[in-house]
């Protein structure tokens, strides 16, 4: 994923989580906040309680791939933070995709995906 599409600074994550809208799923939390830019910026948060580094990094890679795949079809102009919970660990890629789609649909960001 291009660095222009990623949230990098801790204050950007904190602002999205503090002032944005929140959508819940047992395996994941989605925070969204409008930004002043022309495109979405994405961030992924996975705590150490999720599992060992190999599991956390694999989950991050899969979530990044999902967001990259969906980027063009989503409404633009938002900071989007995905927070993975323990229940996401061990889920197959298709289940992760279904969860992310459900959360994005709740948030009203889905365009042509479905």
Plain-language structure description:
It is a single chain. The protein has 114 residues and is an alpha+beta fold. It has one domain: Ribosomal Protein S5, domain 2 (2-Layer Sandwich), CATH 3.30.230. The protein is 38% helix and 22% strand. It has a four-stranded mixed β-sheet with strand order 1-2-4-3, with helices on both faces. The radius of gyration is 13 Å and the shape is globular.
Overall form: globular
Rg, alpha carbons: 13 Å
Overall pLDDT confidence:
89
The CATH topology turns out to be: Ribosomal Protein S5, domain 2
Overall SS class: alpha+beta
How are strands sequenced across the largest beta sheet?
Answer: 1-2-4-3
Number of strands: 4
Q: In the CATH hierarchy, what is the class? A: Alpha Beta
Biggest beta-sheet profile? 4 strands, mixed
How is the quaternary structure best described? single chain
Strand content: 15-25%
Give the domain tally.
Answer: 1
Cα end-to-end separation: 22 Å
Helical segment tally?
A: 3
Order of helices and strands: HEEEHEH
């Amino acid at each position: 994923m291009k660095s222009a599409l990623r949230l990098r600074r801790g204050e950007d994550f904190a602002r999205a989580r503090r002032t944005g809208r929140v959508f819940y799923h047992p395996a994941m939390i989605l925070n969204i906040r409008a930004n002043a830019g022309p495109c979405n910026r994405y961030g992924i948060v996975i705590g150490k309680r999720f599992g060992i580094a190999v599991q956390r990094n694999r989950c991050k890679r899969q979530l990044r791939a999902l967001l990259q795949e969906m980027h063009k079809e989503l409404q633009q102009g938002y900071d989007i933070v995905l927070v993975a919970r323990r229940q996401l660990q061990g889920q197959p890629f298709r289940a992760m995709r279904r969860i992310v789609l459900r959360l994005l649909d709740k948030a009203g960001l889905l365009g042509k995906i479905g």
